[in-house]
UniProtKB/TrEMBL annotation:
It comes from Salipiger pallidus. PROSITE patterns: AA_TRANSFER_CLASS_1. It holds the Pfam family Aminotran_1_2. It catalyses: L-aspartate + 2-oxoglutarate = oxaloacetate + L-glutamate. This is Aminotransferase. Its EC number is 2.6.1.-. Keywords: Aminotransferase, Pyridoxal phosphate, Transferase. SUPFAM superfamilies: PLP-dependent transferases (SSF53383).
Amino acid sequence: MTEYLSKRLSAVRPPQTIALALKVQQMKAEGHDIISLGQGELDFATPEHVAEAGIKAIRDGQTKYTAVAGTPELKAAIARKLKRDNGLDYEPAQIIAGTGAKQLVFNAMMATVDAGDDVVIPVPAWVSYPDIVRLAGGNPILVPMTAADGWKLTPDALAAALTPATKWVMLNSPGNPTGALYTAEELAALCDVLRDHHALIMADDIYELIVHEGSFATPAAVAPDMVDRILTVNGVSKGFAMTGWRLGYAAGPAWLVRAMDILQSQSTSNPSTISQAAAAAALDTDPAELQPRLTRLTARRDMVMEAIAKMPGVEAATPPASFYVFPSVEGLMGARTPEGGVIENDMDLSNYILAAARVAVVPGSAFDMPGHLRLAYALSEDRLAEAMDRMVTALSALELP
Ligand code: PLP
């Protein structure tokens, strides 16, 4: 019955991550003890005071529609956060809340991208960017980054990718899947390249609060003369372990926010009223309260890096931010498994690791960078230690080419 599907949808790739997730589900159902390093979701609970704010909202009857772009209270909390943490000044008309950061990226693309428009996406990148651009009818222009450059887009690579058709440039720091973190100077250099070009800039700051070393910077703050073309996207999913609350936000020029509001009014309307109340409480959280969680995440990252050092053919520099490590596994291509199979690519390797170690990891090709794996260390320390032991054993059993 696929003839019923829209052309729009047929442009979208079947996500490799779904095939992996289905396999994991099936193996779990068969009774296997699978440890997943696949999910970009923290095991931590939503902070108590945030959950309480959600419960209070229900009890107080805050269970009705709100303004499409969010309540005045939430917008005020977002504005306070942007001022306090980023030194940015935004009016309510320049702020929109949505059902996760993902919806805001989607709305921004749907509101601005036409057939023939290019969107520059430095890769490896979050799986959704290219497909959201395709759904909007645009062309994702994938610009490869390298481990040697710390998985960061260079000004030269950006300059070479720009054409008159470039409508957007997507920047994501801290980055998924690599954990790369741009300095203010690096962002300023990219903004310098874009200053005389008409492209809009998307700054996806969703991992802002997960920085192990270095300081977070955001384009709107480093290039204040360009704020009319910058959309800053953020949310509570990652920093506050609130993925299921589905609450993200964006701040940018009023004309763009208005357009996104119109789109949203014909899809989801306002994000959950209850989640808005909880998110307002989250955004007013003293960062010191989150420090113990961050300390644990840093220790987990170090645990993964120690294990990687013991894995033959696997290499990665220590990522400064987010909860991902994105090692190269090029050294394992052509390796023979104990069963006599050959590892031809990163998908084969992730299948082997799943079968031999009962650990799920995402192949780099899902992020448009084959020859790598993404390991999310968003699970408990004991399970992570177990996963690392199993991976070291399984990879040591390969016969290297
Ligand atoms: N942006 C990036 C880079 C992400 O990795 C994710 C989630 O994985 C999102 C946005 C979406 O976040 P949300 O849960 O707020 O929709």
